[in-house]
Amino acid sequence: MAIERFPIEAGHVLMFARAIGDPNPVYAGTDATAASEVGAIPAPPTFVTASAQFDEDYPLRPKPGQPWFGSGKNATGAPPTVPSGGSGGGGTSLHAEQHYEYHRPLVVGDVLHARGRTGEQWEKQGRSGTLKFTELITEYLDESDEVVITARTVAVLTEGPK
Amino acid sequence: MSISAAALQVGDTKELLLVDDLTRTQIVMYAGASGDYNPLHSDEKFAREVAGYPGIFAHGMLSMGMTGRIVTDWFGDGRLAKYGVRFVRQVWPGDTLTATATVDAVREEAGVHYADVSIVTVNQDGTAVVSGTATARLDP
């Protein structure tokens, strides 16, 4: 995964803060923002997950003219063989862990880019079969190429719904 | 707002109600804001008939996002050095979630003061849905 340009925008941060139910006025760009220690609208701690909006190839967003695995007329508009990153015919990929390391506060006005790499991979025996774990490390860098946030995602592929 | 290391002790704890009766609409808001449109989280027909779940469930990242409030409310904005969680159980529409954070350590590293906290978010049955840790920068 690579994201070339992820601008941290005020409207996006506000809608994200509302979605996580955080009423902190610092996210609204009000007097509370000006009076805050950061002195700008900070991004909520998990905000960089919304970089998906700026990933052209992100598989969990419907794209015009392409089959989508969610329902329209039928339960699924795409054959189960379509790689979904979510759920297809065989197993389900679930988010097992998420970790962030913050090198400095991320604020509105920052423009990030991201590069990801696969980390460790391992297997574990679960109650309903083999669980395959994969780690993805993503670095979010600012315009000076300084790392602002390092993200570590652990995904698990199960053999079916739990 | 910030917290002084001198004012904080191991074992200090805070509790925060994150959401009472989580709505499907809030899960949709999160899909829109985050960009994760996986139909497992908004498409009841898909979740039941194709994926075989009892219904839609919340994004793990929504639970993590909501849980993050307990550390930003406590330690201030822009104060986090680390925040990580394990997704323990699924969160369903109608769930009520409460987060608890507990100070595990107050320490100094290269002249900077930090608090390490452990965090757990439970549902209305007291079952953990998210558990993790965070490290926040403190004033001396």
Q: What's this model, at a glance?
A:
The complex is a heterodimer of chains A (162) and B (140). With 162 residues, chain A is mainly beta.
CATH architecture heading of chain A: Roll
Number of domains of chain B: 1
On the 0-100 scale, what is the average pLDDT of chain A? 89
Cα Rg of chain B: 17 Å
Shape of chain A: globular
Shape summary of chain B: elongated
> Assembly state here?
heterodimer
Largest sheet entry of chain B: 5 strands, antiparallel
**CATH superfamily name of chain A?**
Hotdog Thioesterase
Tell me the Rg of chain A in angstroms.
18 Å
Q: Mean of the pLDDT scores of chain B?
A: 96
Percentage of residues in strands of chain A: 35-45%
Element order of chain A: H for helix, E for strand: EHHEEEE
Give the structural class of chain B. alpha+beta
- In CATH, the topology of chain B is named Thiol Ester Dehydrase, Chain A
Helical percentage of chain A? under 10%
Descriptive account of the structure:
Chain A is mainly beta. Chain A has one domain (2-158): Thiol Ester Dehydrase, Chain A (Roll), CATH 3.10.129. Chain A contains two helices and five strands; from the N terminus they run βααββββ. Chain A has helices at residues 10-19, 31-35; strands at 2-7, 92-102, 111-126, 129-141, 147-158. Helix content of chain A is 9%, strand content 36%. Chain B has three helices and five strands; from the N terminus they run βαααββββ. With 140 residues, chain B is α+β, with helices and mostly antiparallel strands. The radius of gyration of chain B is 17 Å and the shape is elongated. Chain B has a five-stranded antiparallel sheet with strand order 1-3-4-5-2, covered by helices on one side. Chain B has one domain (5-23, 59-138): Hotdog Thioesterase (Thiol Ester Dehydrase, Chain A, Roll), CATH 3.10.129. β2 (92-102) of chain A pairs antiparallel with β2 (80-87) of chain B.
